[in-house]
Amino acid sequence: MRGPLTARLRDLATPPVLIAFGGVLWMIALLAMVLVDANPEWEAHQSEYRKRLAAAADDAASVRHAGRFKVQVKQIDLPALERVDRCVSCHVGIEDPAFADAPQPIATHPGDLLTIHTPERFGCTICHGGNGRATSREDAHGLPEPSLNPMLRGEFLQGSCGKCHGDDEFVAGSRLEVGRRLFDHYGCRTCHRLYQSGNTAGPDLTKVGSKKFDAFFWGNDYRGTDRSVVYWLESHFKNPSAFYPSTMLNFKMTDENARALVVYMLSLTDERIPDRLQPSRGPTKP
Amino acid sequence: MSAHSLMESLRCSAIYRSIVRRGPADNDIDRSLAITSNVFLHLHPVKIRRHALRFTYTFGLGGITTLLFLILCVTGVLLMFYYVPSPERAYRSMQDLRYVVPYGTFLRNLHHWAAHAMIVTAALHMARVFYTGAFKGTRQFNWVVGVILFVLTLGFSFTGYLLPWDQLAFWAITVGTNMAAAVPLLGGMIRYALLGGNIVGANALLRFYVLHCAVLPALVFVFLAVHFWRVRKDGGISGPPLPAEVPEEGPPERLFATTPGRSYALVALPREAPAAVEESRKSPEDTVLTYPHLLVREAAAAMVVIGGLLLVALFLNAHLEEAANALKTPDPAKAPWYFLGLQEVVSWSTPFIGGVLVPGLMVLALLAIPYVRPNSVGVGVWFHPARRRAVIAFTIGLVLNVLLIVVGMFFRGHGWSLVWPWSN
Predict the structure, then answer these.
(1) Mutate to test the interface with A, among B100, B105, B297, B414 (most CBs of A within 10 A)
(2) ipTM above 0.90, yes or no
(3) CA atoms within 13 A on the CB side of A275
(4) Contact (Cβ atoms closer than 8 angstroms) between residue A142 and residue A129
(5) Which CATH class is domain A154-277?
(6) Which domain holds residue B110?
(7) Do B103 and A134 touch (CB under 8 A)?
(8) Does pLDDT of B265 surpass 50?
(9) Interface of B with A in 64-103 (CB under 8 A)
(10) How far apart are CA A256 and CA A239, in angstroms?
């Protein structure tokens, strides 16, 4: 059985040779380890941010400000919301108005929402979703979808407003407000329970916004790649039997109405928001 | 000053000499003293039988298992700096290790893979000792100590399994402790004591943490000391009886220039020294010095094992599923892999049979092995023909266990139905 090759290998495998071989393995592994960890994604973005800061500095104060900027993991610690948001490690310019025209991820946060919802108090993920602890783009953004921590995109982001704000505070005409009215309009409580009212023919919707994609029934025939919560809800509203034969009435909703209703569904979560972070007028949620 | 002369002057310096007490060992007396005067090295005898150096006799399995245990101690202590054993923070510790602790992923991977490897090498070491009849004669009780160490190793792995506090951890421990609950009369109490409650929760996490990081390490160190001590007192590792005529050979290879003269002796032998040692006393030419022959082999094995482990830890990430959720049962919920054979048995029988009777009988059978036929037939020879039936019986048990584990790992899908591994 023992051919010349194995015999030669056996002769070669003396302790000194094996020690040298082990040493080579160590070196490869330790070198690769350093290389893998050497260039985190956020480092490149922060370097770019620092470069722009320095280039734009025109007085002594801003030069000092630029000089003080340290490239390091940045995080917002939010014990009250039980989270740590490290989004600002890449989105480092969200609060700096000078970066309005900068490319993502270092651009200024659009709109004036951050003046009311200061990042130090609210962080990012309470509105945007995603995984705040992660420091890589994919993991932080919950990619690839479907994922357990998907980010809310576009109009669906409004769903987060309803986590704190009561029905009477919804901006008139917003997706969220339209969705809430459609919920009444279609008489959803005829079959579904929400908080303390409604019926139990269909699933209770009180915490539907906290359900993950894998808690929805996708049927046995669905072959599509989009398995996000948003896609399930929208398809289900437009055609209740999209995934499996459902007893729910088909309301022939338009795309727009279906999506508004999805936004409202996403606002129905069981997230615990401490009172001191609640809107001053107080919620009207039961 | 050349590097060599720098090293020389270092080794002759008063400080170096105060630490190691002696200079370079360039003769056999100093090589003997290097072993006996060092607290770590004196785990080894000064001289060992040439046979003990054969890689294909031991495959270095006991040593590798010990090495993995030491690696686990070091990486485990480092992990403890970051880990908080509470349901709120355990899983977050895992995420922080992954995202912000420098080389945290790597550290966790090292601990994870070393732990799984240790179960495999400990089991293989046990198989090696069985197949070579190394548990016979004066070594009967040391086999029992070995079985205890193996059970402790499983306990280590099982308690460590819960600590990441993800879905995999939570449900594996739920399944595992439910098996323990099948013990007649005491089952519920055992599970309650283990979990500090009726379900896997904060108390269970704290208990498993304390067992994992304090109780089990202390027990393993005690039993390891006994295990090594007895190997040492039984005259080193086992081997076949010495032949009447010892072949006239030099040491296996010459790593150092040998000096003429032989003025050492075997030291610290028990009065009732076993026969093998008596024989080796009569024919000392069959022994070689531990330093360097055994030490250099141990160093080689350690370098290769650690190198391989570093590479595995670099490329294969330890799983981290979503955070533990008592309301969301995965389908199927599987026990840790080494208990999957038992879970498989549970799935065709009752929790009592698969979770208590079978593992209990397995441990009892292992403990009974050295006392079934207390003779010294076939010691030191792999698969000795005189032990054919014992070898076949042990092999059937081993293969059956491995087969059931493989079925449980790869061929069980939704609702514990039989599936092909690739159909998922």
Answers:
(1) B100
(2) no
(3) 1
(4) yes
(5) mainly alpha
(6) 54-235+296-423
(7) no
(8) no
(9) 88, 92, 95-96, 98-100, 102-103
(10) 14
